[in-house]
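Retry 2 of 3 after timeout on previous attempt. Resubmitting structure tokens to design endpoint.
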């Protein structure tokens, strides 16, 4: 067993979260920060060589976390770059999902979700045909956690779990 943090460029010691392995099992991505006051940044490690670095152009001054590899080597991740804290809990900022992609012109980051809650824990499902994630809705005196499913091009489906009368919750 060897440490993912042993490669050059990886933070350590660090708060590490959300490890995702690429579909071809050659790389792993994870979120890390050195101190609680630092933002989370996403790092990628080559599993054969141990080389570790942030993906070019992915991170900014925001919290970037919960990376998930897609079938075409894109990285879907949660980020606070599009919004501020939620009034009900200013210590938990709102997060949207973004996609980091590489192409002939270089790398790009595009916003994937535009919902009012915090979208977190994304994953590709059904051979990359769908994206699933958790949606946290928070207001003063209210909290709801719902599962969502979307197509990789951003097409939305209704929530497939949440506070519904059919499961014993009416709010």
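Retry 2 succeeded. Sequence:
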């Amino acid at each position: 067993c060897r440490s993912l943090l042993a490669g050059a460029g990886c933070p350590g010691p660090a708060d590490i979260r959300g490890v995702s392995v690429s579909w071809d099992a050659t790389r792993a991505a994870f979120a890390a920060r050195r101190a609680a006051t630092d933002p989370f940044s996403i790092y990628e490690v080559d599993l054969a060589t141990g080389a570790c670095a942030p993906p070019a152009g992915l991170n900014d001054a925001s919290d970037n976390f919960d990376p998930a590899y897609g079938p075409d080597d894109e990285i879907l991740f949660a980020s606070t770059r599009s919004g501020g804290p939620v009034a009900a809990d200013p210590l938990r900022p709102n997060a949207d999902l973004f996609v980091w992609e590489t192409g002939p012109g270089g790398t790009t980051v595009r916003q994937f979700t535009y919902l009012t809650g915090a979208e977190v824990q994304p994953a590709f499902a059904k051979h990359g045909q769908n994206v699933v994630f958790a949606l946290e809705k928070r207001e003063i005196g209210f909290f709801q956690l719902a599962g969502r499913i979307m197509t990789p091009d951003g097409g939305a489906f209704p929530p497939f779990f949440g506070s519904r009368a059919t499961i014993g919750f009416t709010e």
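Attempt log closed. The first strand starts at residue 15 and ends at 21.
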